[in-house]
Amino acid sequence: MNSRVHRSGAAYRQGQIITDPIKRVQRLRWTAFALGAMAFVLAFFHRLAPGAIAGELQRAFATSSASLGLLAATYFYIYFAMQVPSGILADTLGPRKLFTAGALVAGIGSALFGLAPDFDLALLGRFLVGLGVSVAFISVLKLNAAWFPEHRFGTMTGLLVFFGNMGGLLSTVPLAWAAAHGVWRSVFVAAGALSVLLAVFTWLFLRDNPRELGLPSMQQLEGKPEYPPASENWRAALATVLANPRTWPGFMVQFGQIGAYLSWGGLWAIPYLREVQGMPRELAAWHISLMILCFALCSLAVGALSDRIGRRTPLMRALGLLFVLSWLPWLWGGPLPLAVSLGLFALTGVSISGITLVWPCAKEVNPPAYSGMSTSVVNTGGFLGPALLQPLVGLALDFASRGSAHTPGDWRLGLAVLFAFALLGWLSTFFVTETRCRNIYREPI
Hints:
This protein has 445 residues and is an all-alpha fold. The protein is 75% helix and 0% strand. The protein has one domain (19-217, 232-431): Growth Hormone, Chain: A.
């Protein structure tokens, strides 16, 4: 850290660089990141969980495909609605209060979902889970901006997505095993208890920024001017972000690509693999696990590579094209060899990792003090997409099948909807502004 400070000419100047505070910042930043990342792990677990227990949910609550899509998408409805408020609250109240309250609400919702005797209570539990975890990702991005140097933001975003995907892995094979043994409800009750415990640790050990502990801020350590807090006029701050034309292409990338990815991996992929490819549940769940693992590892690499080469959009566009191409074999319909289906899921996971760079771009085209709001506006697209797509695919399946068992032709209609959204997301990458890994808000458009 000290060498970087010297190389950039940045230093915490009170006559000289103070070594001990810098070391404390370096140590405490990882406490902040770890607590925030744990909240995101739980968020990702709940996000993808319905796909592994889709059959159990339909049997437990006697639902149609469209109703199952509604149950899964309820998480995304409230998550979508809370993204901009989460950004405002992250910039004004701070992540610590948000994390604590969010973890408590998510814990109650998860327990209610696991214990629900009927569809309505399960829907309420899913709603509360979505409400509670909706603050996690934006708050961690806010913490990263406060505790880590600007030139490492892409790397830290990739690391965060990596850990989030570890939560996604828990919602595949382990949850499928729990479903097969009839204990899936207990898993959600345990996840609720873990959320409550996380709330306690967050309140005790998390701090919003180094200055709350009397330590130099990242701006001071990097020799950059301090930015006024957004709490001084959050309405004007939000208006600035919303009026910025550079903000919206990232929203559309998220809307299309993440919408298709989460609708597929979070609900419809396992039913498709079982009905069309004839796979047992455990093998289908391994496909999702492979996809998530590839997403996790490549997100980590993409963020670090982008920071190293000093570019964002080339990686985003190349990977976005691969994501679009990965859907074409499914549209042809019919069973595929196991090696091909595994390869396609791996390719989907690798290619969706380009989405990791959308959040740094959103932060880097808006005022630095508004990082919570700017990333939240873009992130809204990633949850509006699946909120619309999960039930939309269910409606397409119900329409095509007319209430009978789904055929490969029925599934082709649902997959065409997902492909169209993936294509829209890729085309939107060509409108994202290249930032070269620095804040360019004051540079002309």
